[in-house]
Amino acid sequence: MVLTTTSFAGGTGKSRTPRSWKSVLLVTSHPDDESMFFGPTIQAAKRMGAQVHILCLSTGDADGLGEVRAKELDSAGAYLGVTSVELVDDSALRDGFDEKWPVEAVAARVDAAASKVGAETVVTFDAGGVSGHPNHTATYRGVLYWMLSEDYRETLRGVRQVWSLVTTNTVRKFAGVCDAFASFFLEPNAMLAASNPLALMRAMTMHASQFVWYRRLFVVFSRYSYTNTLKCLKG
Question: CA 93, CA 115: separation in Å to the nearest integer?
Answer without folding.
Answer: 20
